[in-house]
Structures are given as C-alpha cells and as structure tokens.
Amino acid sequence: MEPIEIEGTSKTPTVSLNHGTGFVEIKGRSIPENSVEFYKPLVDWLEDYKKSPAPKTTVNIQLEYFNTSSSKCILDVFKKLEDINKGDAEVVINWYYEEDDEDMLEAGEDYESIIRVPFKMIEVAE
C-alpha cells in the first residue's frame, strides 16, 4: 500500500497515512470546499488498510478547527478505524486540543462516545 501524504493548506489539513508504521495523522484546519471529495481517498485507503493492518495503529488528530461537513467525514474515518479495531489489530486515537479550546475537547469526547476505539485526550499548551 502506498502511503498518503497531503500537504495542508489554509482550508485543508495535513494528512499522513502510512501502512508500514501504522501511523495516521490529520492536523490543521478542515474547511475544504468539498469535504466528501477531500476525505474520500482517506476512507478508501483505510478500507484497503483494514485487510492487513499493522498490529497497532496510532492515530493523531490535531485539528484547530473543522466545519460541519468535515465532522461527518471525520466520523466516517473513525468508523473505518473502529472496523480495524474490531479485528486483531489495536487502534489508539490521540485527540489533541489546546488548553483553552473547550469546543475541540467536547468534539473529541463526542466522537469517543460514538466510536468504540480508545481515545486519549491530550491537552496542548499554547
């Protein structure tokens, strides 16, 4: 499987998906013109990855902001990770938020309540 590396812009997050290391990262701002189009390659990649995942997959989510349409797409990503976690592979999601950003913390907690994958809430000092 080829890794996916997407350089972030002012509207889209930096994305890194690497099968060899079992590392997934989404970082930055997520307000793309078309969220479904932006996130589709990630969801498709995870669907393939599910067939032979690394023994442990570490997912780092460090978003400054995301819009409503991105939130649905992020949930789709988490659902693929949940499928991977149901098998023999372990998935851990590290949800980063800035210390004064209650909204981002709550968003992570909301996802954690929906998805059956262990979340670690990690506060980042500014």
Notes on the structure:
By secondary structure, the protein is an alpha/beta fold. The chain has a domain at 42-126. Helices cover 37% and strands 33% of the residues. It is built from 3 helices and 6 strands; from the N terminus they run E-E-E-H-E-H-E-H-E. It has helices at residues 35-49, 68-86, 102-114; strands spanning 4-6, 14-18, 23-30, 56-66, 90-98, 119-124. A 6-stranded mixed sheet has the order 1-2-3-4-5-6, with helices on one face. The longest helix has 19 residues, at 68-86.
**Strand percentage, roughly?**
25-35%
Order of helices and strands: EEEHEHEHE
Uncertain stretches of 5 or more adjacent residues: none
- Average of pLDDT: 96
What's the gyration radius in Å?
14 Å
In the sheet with the most strands, the strands line up as 1-2-3-4-5-6
How would you classify the helix and strand content by structural class?
Answer: alpha/beta
Q: Helical segment tally?
A: 3
- Main pleated sheet: 6 strands, mixed
Dominant shape: globular
- Terminal-residue CA separation: 36 Å
- How many beta-strand elements? 6
Helicity, as a percent range: 25-40%
